[in-house]
Write a structure and sequence with these properties.
Number of strands: 12
Shape: globular
Radius of gyration: 19 Å
Low-confidence stretches: none
Mean pLDDT: 95
CATH class of the largest domain: Alpha Beta
Structural class: alpha/beta
Distance between the termini: 47 Å
Largest sheet: 8 strands, mixed
Strand order of the largest sheet: 5-2-1-6-7-8-11-12
CATH architecture of the largest domain: 3-Layer(aba) Sandwich
CATH superfamily of the largest domain: NAD(P)-binding Rossmann-like Domain
């Protein structure tokens, strides 16, 4: 398939590279000032791959096709949007004008307002959702430093807003399966996305407070505070009619602390997750701040008390 990765960040590059290895034709949309250097030198990737119970370090130069603007007559079958949440509003007018017949797959953190914004620019027939739960990391002067998770719990959620298991979802799921990126099709992807936003906001705040994923996993007090923040966020989701109990991954955060903390220490102490957490929190603090603010704002609007979220945000960002 011809697939456009919208954005040359860590997630988009890693997923694009993995899809290219199974024969798909990958193009990356980049900012104009980056086009020539990427075209000439490629994208340098230093990847630690934990799949299959192994830890394999790979250094590659990924050389996809590169464009710096999207033509209205493009012939992409899929456009996978992998930029962070802050860029959504600048991307939507471009997609509205130039997506053509491509299926747009949003691979981003999504809150309720973001879903509304997308619907203003695109029809539901044009887009669907997923989340790049398998990969993450950061970058330095040498290029992209990514990790691919080998955890049993890690996967790539996919789904249509209406819950239909559509042909386009099945087709991209097959491509991701061939690339060993563990797709799972959800019939309630909206609930997954919104509740994940609340969970990710609380976790990211805890990691930023602890200064690293490893410190976070080893600090029971910060873990407890992060779980309390997540509970507040999930209560906001409930108030907005997104039932957290409908997504089994959220059960951890409702357990008594004497059970939840040891489980969280084990899961979040995973080396791949720590690499992914550290990269994301270090390179996207503005997105983390927005996520906290979105949940706090909607909590206050709907009468949900969120003192822990407010406190942890003030501690990190003030």
């Amino acid at each position: 398939m011809k697939i456009l990765i919208y954005g040359a960040g860590i997630v988009g590059t890693t997923y694009g590279w993995q899809l290219s290895k199974t024969g798909h034709e990958i193009t990356v949309l980049v900012r104009p000032q980056k086009k020539q250097s990427i075209k000439e030198e490629g994208i340098h990737i230093h990847c630690t791959d934990f799949r299959g119970g192994q830890k394999e370090v790979k250094k590659v130069v990924f050389k996809p096709d590169v464009i710096d603007s999207l033509s209205t007559d493009n012939n992409f079958e899929y456009i996978i949007v992998t930029t962070n949440n802050l860029h959504l509003k600048e991307i939507l007018p471009v997609l509205s004008k130039s997506a053509g017949n491509a299926h747009v797959l949003f691979f981003q953190n999504m809150w309720v307002d973001d879903l509304d914004s997308i619907n203003e620019y695109l029809s539901e027939k044009q887009y669907f959702f997923g989340f790049p739960f398998m990969a993450g990391g950061g970058r330095d002067a040498g290029g992209i430093k990514s990790a691919i998770s080998g955890l049993k719990q890690s996967h790539t959620p996919l789904g249509e807003l209406n819950g239909e298991v559509s042909e386009r979802v099945q087709k991209i799921a097959k491509a991701l399966e061939d690339a060993n990126l563990k797709p799972i099709i959800y019939n309630q992807i909206k609930i997954w996305l919104i509740t994940h936003y609340a969970v990710a906001a609380g976790l990211s705040a805890g990691i930023m407070k602890a200064k690293s994923g490893r410190n976070f996993a080893n600090n029971s007090d910060i873990l407890k505070e992060a779980i309390k923040a997540i509970r507040e966020g999930l209560e906001v989701c409930q108030k907005l009619r997104y039932n957290p109990k409908a997504e089994k991954a959220n059960r951890l955060y409702s357990l008594p602390f004497f059970i939840a903390i040891p489980i969280a220490r084990k899961v979040y102490g995973n080396e791949a997750l720590c690499l992914m957490f550290d990269g994301h929190t270090q390179h996207s603090p503005d997105e983390m701040k927005k996520m906290l603010e979105d949940i706090i704002t909607d909590g206050e609007k709907h009468g949900v008390k969120v003192p822990i979220l407010k406190q942890i945000k003030e501690t990190i960002f003030n």
